[in-house]
Design goal:
single chain; alpha/beta; two-stranded antiparallel sheet; 12 strands; 36% helix
């Protein structure tokens, strides 16, 4: 698939004159302190500051994510505060691991602030949580893609209601009050500027979201190793690109207390390059300050949706299974 190829203006520079920008946006699924701490220690030792999402609230029912730590686990809350003090961004992944009505989301945001002393600035929807903002077919403008989406995903057409006023899951006003950036479409290309100039954009048709951002995506350790291989890193640096890489650092990245060897080698190689390694919101704020965050046109939105759809099909063919090393940590979670 031919990329849409984009470059900022000739005088654009990343801070410090760095050649490219790279960050990781870590969805907190199946994460516990022991299963992700070694990664954040590695990031810190390499001079990389990234973004970690959290769930504030425990969930007492059955869930595929049972055992994941939340801010209601005192040791994990202390760990998250430590990360914030070390310069990592702490972001919001919803109230908890399953669907949450408005009152739980409100309580979760209050606990986030009480634990960390600030509100989250970025957010990513989680799985099939009903309170996800503009998710499912609501994320699409193309009538064709709206029809194809339920068949592709198996999701009910009106399942997601975080943006629907009057729904018990509505919290769009709270999101607009606190969140600067919300993750939308994800892709399997490392340099996002190969796809579109609109890495971060405003959409007048989604009034409860201030800014959307797109990201590269690697679900688990095996996909992370594939997408971040040395050839892709070479290309990212050579093109002066921008990569915000979404992943789940809880999914197989740490085995018996140690970061998986290929991950350690690839991140160390990335850190030796001439990159700006800052949290996602810091990078997006810089793009806005440089005039690179604008209202997206209907034509550009249409293009972005179709590129996303083609990437989504391609990613289904490239899905990789992985050794679920996190199970030993989930079984011992508090």
């Amino acid at each position: 698939m031919t990329p849409l190829a984009y470059r900022p203006s000739a005088d654009f520079r990343f801070p410090g004159g760095k050649r490219f920008a790279f960050s990781v946006f870590d969805d907190t699924d199946v994460a516990t302190e022991p299963s992700v701490r070694p990664l954040y220690d590695l990031f810190a030792s390499l001079g990389m500051r990234t973004t970690k999402t959290v769930w504030p609230l425990r969930y007492g029912g059955p869930s595929d994510y049972a055992g994941s730590h939340t801010l209601e686990d005192p040791g994990y809350a202390a760990f998250v505060r430590e990360l914030a003090g070390r310069g990592f961004e702490i972001a919001f992944h919803g109230a908890t691991m399953e669907s949450s009505p408005r009152e739980d989301t409100e309580r979760a945001l209050e606990l986030f602030h009480a634990t960390l002393g600030f509100h989250p600035r970025s957010y990513a929807s989680h799985s099939n949580n009903r309170e996800n903002l503009y998710w499912g077919p609501a994320r699409l403008r193309s009538r064709v893609l709206r029809r194809l989406y339920p068949a592709l995903t198996g999701e009910a057409a009106h399942w997601f209601q975080g943006h629907v006023e009057g729904s018990p899951y509505f919290w769009g006003d709270l999101g607009l009050q606190h969140l600067a950036h919300v993750r939308g479409f994800t892709f399997d290309t490392l340099n996002l500027w190969r796809l579109t100039p609109h890495v971060c954009y405003e959409d007048p048709l989604t009034p409860w979201v201030r800014d959307w951002f797109i990201s590269a995506d690697a679900d688990n350790v095996e996909e992370f190793v594939r997408v971040l291989d040395e050839a892709s890193q070479d290309r990212l640096e050579r093109e002066g690109g921008l990569c915000l890489l979404s992943t789940h650092l809880g999914k197989g990245f740490v085995i018996d207390g140690r970061v998986e060897g290929r991950v350690q080698r690839l991140l160390a190689g990335m850190a030796r390059r001439d990159g700006w390694f800052a949290p996602v919101s810091e990078i997006l704020d810089y793009l806005r300050a440089c005039g690179l965050v604008r209202r997206i046109s209907a034509v550009d939105r249409h293009k972005l949706e179709w590129v996303w759809f083609l990437h989504a099909l391609r990613r289904r063919l490239k899905r990789r299974t992985y050794f679920k090393a996190e199970l030993q940590y989930l079984g011992n979670a508090e």
